[in-house]
Amino acid sequence: MPDTGSYVSIDEANMTELTFAKIDQTVLDTLKPPDRSYWVTVGILFLGVLTGAACWIYQILTGIGVAGMNIPVAWGTYLINFVFWVGIAHSGTLISAILHLLRAGWRNPIARAAETMTVFAVCIAGLFPFIHLGRVWLVFYMLPVPNQRNLWQNFQSPLMFDVVAISTYFTVSSLFWYTGMLPDLAIVRDRATGVRKKIFKIISLGWTGAHEQWRHYARGYLFFAALATPLVISVHSVVSWDFALGIAPGWHTTIFAPYFVAGAIHSGLAMVLTLMIPIRKIFHYEKIITTGVLENVAKTIIFTGLIVGFAYGTEFFMAWYSRNPVEIAIFKYRPTGDYAVGFWIMVICNTMIPLLFFFKRIRTTIPWLFVISIFVNIGMWFERFVIIISSVSRDFIPHAWGLYSPTFIEFGIMLGAFCLFFFLYLLFVKHLPSVSMTEMKEVVDQGASHAD
Amino acid sequence: MPTEYSVMGLFTDEKRAVSAIEAIKDSPWQLRRVNSPIPSHKIADALELKKSKVGYFTLAGGITGFFSGFLLAAFTASQWHLIVSGKPVIALVPFFIVGFEFTILFAIFGNVVGLIHQMQLPEYKGLEQYDPRCSGHHFGVTASCKAEDLEGLKHFFQSKGGEVKVILNGPV
What we know:
The complex is a heterodimer of chains A (452) and B (172). Chain A is an all-alpha fold and 452 residues long. Chain A has a single domain (12-144, 153-441), classed as Up-down Bundle (Formate dehydrogenase/DMSO reductase fold), CATH 1.20.1630.10. Chain A has helices spanning 12-17, 20-29, 36-62, 77-101, 108-133, 158-191, 194-203, 211-244, 256-282, 291-322, 325-336, 340-352, 360-363, 366-393, 408-431, 437-446. Chain A is globular. The two termini of chain A are 19 Å apart. Mean pLDDT of chain A is 90; it is low at 1-13 and 448-452. By secondary structure, chain B is α+β, with helices and mostly antiparallel strands. Chain B folds into two domains: 4-51 and 138-169, 2-Layer Sandwich (Alpha-Beta Plaits); 54-119, no CATH class. Chain B is built from five helices and four strands; from the N terminus they run βαβαααβαβ. Chain B has helices at residues 14-25, 41-47, 54-78, 92-119, 150-159, and strands spanning 4-11, 30-35, 139-146, 163-169. Classes of the chains: A mainly alpha (452), B alpha+beta (172).
């Protein structure tokens, strides 16, 4: 947050137009009472959430057999969605923490929105292991709670690493998000009236921007960023070890941790574009979230897309070079077998379509940015599908092979999860500042002397 | 009749606020507080602020976290002495991962406790001596003076291009 050393790549023309007062006004205007179309959209999304909840309740009452998971494919869409949403969460921390440490000023206009995306995406991701459990009331078995049988978790298991890592990630990203928002909550408090003023007075904790507060705050925020950076890398590494520490062909590989981290950031950045482009249009953020900012996100997507593409290629190379017949078989199966459509969607959407961003005209054209971001989101979902499903459906023993396809219940829960994410996000953008006013003021304060 | 007054000068320009701070340091008035909408390095330099001690809380949290995580895993494993996957009962590599995650978690807890302790938040009384414009685009420099110097202090802020606000009788 206190980013006084950063350089800025926001268009200079916009910089000269923006003032502290204009920034405040633009962001505070987004908190005005919404019109009917907003509530209609919220209502539709809530219906989607109810659909998902109904499907989950049906599964709890009937049994996990209503999902399409079977032997040998015991991990289905619930785990796919878990990995997908954890991945989405990652770019929020990349933007708020890693780019903060790298002094990349273009992150400032989108940092709040990305952090919020992180918090909500981790919430959604955290739901899926609950759903996958079947007997969800036994979820406390995952927690180290003293019990009369003296039974404890196996902390040698990557699944327990995951419990610890995801819980830590949720806690840290929530605290980071709230701490970063304190000065902005005070701005809303100082301009609000009535009940809203009272609420914001409490949640801004009496922040006054006194020099003693800034002194500690700047230091504390730096530590938040410094600690969140290794955390974000460790979390998706741990998620990858859920697979890599197993022996299934196509999973048991050392490349998984960096491959998953790059993929997570790839999908998260795409989701940032998917969310920011409509918000920018609806809330008239054009002067704050400039085309230059979106272009920088697109350039980063090229980079992560190339890493992901390199990882795809490396997997095939390692299978061929190892001469391991089981590995070779699974990597022949993926592009040509039962899930070949998913595989090619993954390859095209994640590695080929993002290459269009090499053309400046495309990466500076808003509709192109939006459409390509959707393709990357789809591709990254299919990446998890291909990794999780194909390996276990063609295990070591041919007579135990099997196929998997999701059921309506699984699709319903997936729909509910997506609706819940956008439902929470819509509530956020109308009730809390979706752009960090303080960080934008810092950008303006540094002005052209720090411009790119 | 109060014997001491606090006066806030409100500046729309950071440089003028810094100039006022520098001038107050060489005056008989007491500089009490500076409120600003952004964390300003120029103001921090003018005030010659020391480095925050929040980091000590963070460090203490991190050290506590590592040992908590590692020892939790070691304690739970030692309850049954079962060999899992051929690894030792107290397996260093996997338990280090648990220790690492707890390090980050507890370091963040320490950081938050440090921030709350050092910033003394929540604290709502400070709002009484505060001008809401300071969260917008004003820099508020507050100084205190004796009753007989009140006019001089007000005149000083005006001469520096600030708007004057007598915020409280007595020190803040």
